[in-house]
Amino acid sequence: MHEAHQYAKLENNAVKCSLCNHRCTIQDGKYGICGVRMNRQGSLKAMTYGKISAEAVDPIEKKPLFHYLPGTLSYSLGSIGCNFHCEHCQNWHISRAELEGAMLRELPPAEGVKRAIASGSKSISWTYNEPTIWHEYPLDMGSLAKAKGLGTVYVTNGYITEEALRELAPMLGAFRVDLKAFTDDFYKKICGAKLQPVLDSAQLAKELGMHVETVTLVIPGLNDSMEEQEKLIRWVIEHLGPETPMHFSAFHPDYKMLDRGATPVATLEKIYKKAKALGLRFPYLGNVPRNSYENTYCPHCNTTLIERQGFSSRFVALDGNQCTNCGEKIEIVRHVS
Ligand code: SF4
């Protein structure tokens, strides 16, 4: 059983986990909120280390990541468990799965890197369930992957602590973080968490040199007011920079949230235009098939740089990192070093 990182021993065989901002105190024989970190006689164990529930080779656009190795494949892995309990979770069958009875298979880190390379992928993504709670495994695999020249991606809710994120920083290339809303009330009621730690980790990821993209699922009646969206966009521009790609995605009823309809495209387009007007260089819409706001446009001359259809990309007017029409430098990671 794999010894966990990021915890302290307490009295009476209890432990305190400092991997995510729940900072659970866990008694002997019990699990933390995520359901995958267990106290065994005063020592914290990472129960899902090396255990995967899902493996796929995805276009990186599916994460979605539009400015990190665009047009390439990403070898993608997931396990089970989550430290959030979102009512609208789209991957609830793995995020809410329990260790006992879960369909998991072993994949040692070095084997994962080999499979990634053999698949023709340019990166490894830890995705499908929350990677933070799997910490030790992506950390080991990511270090090997980086040495082989692969990119590394977290698709995350951003609830990781500062100390854990700093531990990941030497190996992690991209931090694709959900900004689910811009109110503490939403985080508390819908996810069982708090807003500020998510903002802090997004900002720290940027400061640590990671490529950051955000995703906001716009849910009718919960976070779709223009006032809230404007505050969120302004925060990103100020703290992560106007070059940060922000994805605004349509909600579709799922899991326990079946009491409202899908997000109207008009709402998303209004948010897109507001983001542009506020000075964000690369807003995007998601879950809206064949919408032109999935394309990348030059922020200076508005030329279409990358055209997207579903998850496929066509480079139209991009030479390396430059718009071929006006020469504007575009903030996009084409290669990892
Ligand atoms: S990773 Fe799990 S055990 Fe650790 S603080 Fe977060 S929810 Fe609690």
Protein architecture, described:
- Helices cover 24% and strands 24% of the residues.
- With 337 residues, the protein is an alpha/beta fold.
- The strands form six sheets. An eight-stranded mixed β-sheet has the order 8-9-11-12-13-14-15-16. It has a three-stranded antiparallel β-sheet with strand order 1-6-5, with no helix packed on it.
- A hairpin with a 7-residue loop joins β3 and β4.
- α2 crosses α3.
- It is globular and about 65 Å long.
- The mean pLDDT is 95.
- Bound molecules: iron/sulfur cluster.
- The site of iron/sulfur cluster (SF4) has 12 residues, from loops.
Short overview:
By secondary structure, the chain is of the alpha/beta class. The protein has helices at residues 92-95, 109-118, 136-147, 162-168, 184-191, 196-207, 226-239, 265-278; strands at 2-3, 7-9, 15-17, 25-26, 37-40, 43-46, 51-52, 54-59, 73-78, 105-106, 123-126, 151-156, 174-178, 211-218, 246-250, 283-286, 296-297, 304-309, 312-315, 318-319, 322-323. It contains eight helices and 21 strands.
